[in-house]
Specification:
Length: 196
């Protein structure tokens, strides 16, 4: 099925077209979301929300954007919303635990260190380095996190990222530069040979 036929089918509510869309994009959506939320179960839930959002809002897609860019925009937005919500709950739980008013037995240490997870795109011998890197990525600003993830995890070009993030090439270049500077500061010599 050609792209325009797929879009037309989706806009008509075709379940077959929707299945094809999910088959074509599920791994990219899941990997992008996982790189941001860093919790496999949460990433699965968010990825499902992304496809529900696509199904419910495809009638508003007019083709000014490329379909892939539009899908990545929904995925990164939903992932950031979920990430912020979870960290807001953790901050609240941490603060209330200081006053002994929380039943939450999650330690403060969990608030400051990323959950141990494995990204499917990372080879076995690179897992330890990836854990450190994803921990550092989680401390970037939201915009830096999205740009860095789309470029280094999903392999999008800067031009493609401008479509997803709906901004200029110079803004993406600036975000990537600041992300790299921040990561170098956090990671020190650990990643001096990593190429960024």
């Amino acid at each position: 099925m050609e792209l325009q036929q797929l879009i037309d089918g989706l806009q008509r509510g075709s379940q077959d077209a929707f299945r094809q869309l999910v088959d074509a994009y599920q791994h990219r959506v899941y990997n992008t979301v996982l790189a941001i939320v860093q919790q496999p179960e949460e990433a699965e839930d968010v990825a499902q929300e992304v496809f529900v959002e696509i199904f419910e809002s495809i009638h508003r897609f007019e083709g000014e954007d490329r379909l892939t860019a539009w899908i990545y925009r929904i995925a990164t937005t939903k992932a950031l919303q979920s990430y912020r919500k979870r960290h807001a709950r953790k901050r609240f739980a941490f603060l209330t635990s200081l006053y002994g008013t929380s039943d939450n037995d999650e330690s403060a240490d969990d608030r400051w260190h990323p959950v141990d997870f494995e990204h499917p795109g990372v080879k076995l011998e690179q897992k330890e380095r990836a854990k450190v890197l994803f921990g550092a990525i989680s401390r970037l600003s939201d915009q830096q996190k999205v740009a860095f993830t789309l470029h280094h995890v999903e392999g999008l070009s800067y031009a493609e990222i401008t479509e997803v993030m709906n901004t200029s090439l110079s803004s993406i270049e600036s975000l990537m530069h600041r992300a790299k500077v921040n990561l170098r500061k956090q990671l020190g010599s650990y990643y001096k040979d990593s190429g960024f």
